[in-house]
Amino acid sequence: MSVKAFKLVPAVEREMLMGDKARINIECIECCGKNLYIGTNDGSIYHFLLEEKNSPDEKTSFTVTKQLHKYLSVRKAVGELKAASALNRLLVLCDSAIMLVNMMNLEPIPTGARIKGAVTFTLNENPVSGDPFCVEVCIVSVKRRTIQLFLVYEDRVQIVKEVFTQEQPCAVAVDGHYLCLALTTQYIILNYNTGASQDLFPYSSEERRPIVKRIGRQEFLLAGPGGLGMFATVDGISQRAPVHWSENVIGAALCFPYVVALDEEFITVHSMLDQQQKQTLAFKDGHILQDFEGKVIVATTKGVYILVPLPLERQIQDLLASHRVEEALVLARGARRNIPKEKFQVMYKRILQQAGFIQFAQLQFLEAKELFRSGQLDVRELISLYPFLLPASSSFIRSHPPLHEYADLNQLTQGDQEKMAKCKQFLMSYLNEVRSTDVANGYKEDVDTALLKLYAEANHESLLDLLASENFCILTDSATWLEKHKKFFALGLLYHSNGQDAAALQLWVKIVNGDIQDSTRTDLYEYIVDFLTSCSDHELVWKYAEWLLQQSEEIGIYVFTRRPQEEGQDNSFNPDDVMSCLNKYPKSLVKYLEFLVLERRIQKEKYHTHLAVLYLEKVLNLKSLEAERNEELFETKAKLQSLLRESDLYRTRFILDKISGSDLHMECAILYGKLEEHDKALHILVHVLKDFAAAEDYCVWNSKNRGILYRQKLFHMLLTAYLNSSSAEHELVMAAVDLLNSHAADFDAALVLRLLPDSWSVQLLSSFLAGAMRESIHSQRMSQIALGLAKAENLIYKHEKVKLKGDTTVLSDRKLCQVCQTPFCEPAFVRYPNGSVVHTHCAAGRLVTSNTNRHFSSPSGRT
């Protein structure tokens, strides 16, 4: 694909060079700085001064001033010209000899030093001699298969090396110790210092003219077979793909990142970066193409022209204007070596951003996103394409010069709604990714506000996630937009994120009441309850508490019962105040009392009594409605019985008086138990309810944490209730037997045997007797073990005492107490196992110091 990389500008036209002498032809050229030298076929050298001029319209021209025209002593064609500016010498190949002339006056040097027998020559641009006052010259000698290397000084020449090749060399290029040679049938790399050679690839010198050109450190460009320009390093490998040029290439030059080739009719330009042909210029009768320090000069036999490269930035912009993004980026990356680092970074970022907008306009969103990220695009450039997304308060101004050609999204999509929707979807995704990164630093308000507007317009589920998390949405712009799209619940979240909870609640309550329509959340009432439950503004909670309870007593009460625990001590929610509020809502009142008594475990009699009374009233009310099998009645009775059993704080007599006269026998039994009137309780359970399992449970829970004797007392009372019935009912007898057999460990066996009727058989009581015997034997053995352990411990103490008595303790008025550090005034003392002695009152009065305590401790713990 074409790009205008060079323009052809005439430099030396025929009239300036040869006038009307038709037979004079240009044979070679050399350029050093502003000095242009031309060698002709009549043995002349022309010296011109080349001045470049740039006009405001970016048209480049050259002013050429003829400085000198010099005939050589030999009227034969000048074959090669090479300037050695450090020596102020021009090397001239003519008649198989290289002579040295002054660069300014073109006079031969007085010494007449020259190199004879040269077919062609080149300079070593990577010299190895290390001498700044000479240049290294490599020639193809007229001797067969011979290469010679010379050192050329200001007034003399010195041969350094003579190298022999396997075939006759035709062309040569040199880099350091390496020679790149075009032989008769192949190209080779030859290290003249070591003699090592590396074959590259074959070619036929009879079919085409060889090209060997050094293009960089240890790298050469060669004319290969099949019309390929081949790159080769001194190691004999190619690190770049070849370029495809003409089969009849005459010359080649390098102007990074381009390779320029000349054939009989055209000049072609190829990129070294992607190997594509970028430009073709018509140029007939050309026979010389060379590059000199960035200048590319081409010549016919009659005139000289310069290929002026267009600035890389302009080339890149032309490629971008043609939407050739990949080529532009490749060229931009390749330009890195020719542009200062800071300038390149600024330029490259802008190119990436421009390329991103081109891809965006083509709906290539993945590529656009990557380019925007790499180019560190100010995301507001992208947002500004979308009408009304940037907040009115934004100070953003688009980049100048502009990064793209579009006024807005409507122009970019040409009104295509499907394309517009895709673009908005991309922006949503991109903003969501960058909002929490450094890309959004400094303008998070613009990013979040734009994202909110996109979400609201698209009815996107992420709108709520955005508002529920930390965000920087601008309130005025966002509120107007949400109202426009009837996103009232989201508007409430926006108010909340800006600290306006009262406004948020007012809006949500209107939605629940049906004053405004928003179906975002079907559970909005429950959401409001949760919101107020965690709300730190207690006045706001009190304001809406009545409304919550009116909507649902069961759920509304959560605003008081599910608050964070640390707020429980706050006087704003004093339980008495809450209960006053709940008096009109009996269901909520019960749940709140359950919260205080069962969850918070508040130990206040009035709450426990109040809850018990509410349970009782509900049970009595349900029973009056003849709802004996009602599940609610069963559940409430269970709660009442559980409270009566577990709590010790309610007013037992008061509750008992309320129950009296009803058929709540189980509740009466529990209350008698709380009053320690167990005989009445057991009478109800055994003889009124005939619930023997409940009677056993009664004994268990009433004796919990009260010792074995109290437990035995209750079970004996229950057994007595079974046995002392006025009517010896069979079921009571069986209940007594079951009681004994299942709770053998809870009875005093001897006392039980005295109570049992003589008519009962041993077989009937076998389980009880076996359990009682097992318990008795177990108790006896545990006592024996405890006694044995006590005797062993006592024996250890006695042994330690005997050992201590064997040691002598000397007490004098100079010995100090280890605790109070005062002398002893009386013979009474306490001696510790480590030999330390203290006063008796010190040992009894307080602990010794930590150091003494560590040493005084003994296995027995005794003194």
From TrEMBL:
<dbReference type="InterPro" id="IPR000547">
    <property type="entry name" value="Clathrin_H-chain/VPS_repeat"/>
</dbReference>
<dbReference type="Pfam" id="PF10367">
    <property type="entry name" value="zf-Vps39_C"/>
</dbReference>
<feature type="domain" description="CNH">
    <location>
        <begin position="23"/>
        <end position="296"/>
    </location>
</feature>
<dbReference type="InterPro" id="IPR032914">
    <property type="entry name" value="Vam6/VPS39/TRAP1"/>
</dbReference>
<dbReference type="InterPro" id="IPR019453">
    <property type="entry name" value="VPS39/TGFA1_Znf"/>
</dbReference>
<protein>
    <submittedName>
        <fullName>Transforming growth factor-beta receptor-associated protein 1</fullName>
    </submittedName>
</protein>
<keyword id="KW-0675">Receptor</keyword>
<keyword id="KW-0813">Transport</keyword>
<feature type="repeat" description="CHCR">
    <location>
        <begin position="563"/>
        <end position="727"/>
    </location>
</feature>
<dbReference type="InterPro" id="IPR001180">
    <property type="entry name" value="CNH_dom"/>
</dbReference>
<keyword id="KW-0963">Cytoplasm</keyword>
<dbReference type="InterPro" id="IPR019452">
    <property type="entry name" value="VPS39/TGF_beta_rcpt-assoc_1"/>
</dbReference>
<dbReference type="Pfam" id="PF10366">
    <property type="entry name" value="Vps39_1"/>
</dbReference>
<dbReference type="Pfam" id="PF00780">
    <property type="entry name" value="CNH"/>
</dbReference>
<keyword id="KW-0653">Protein transport</keyword>
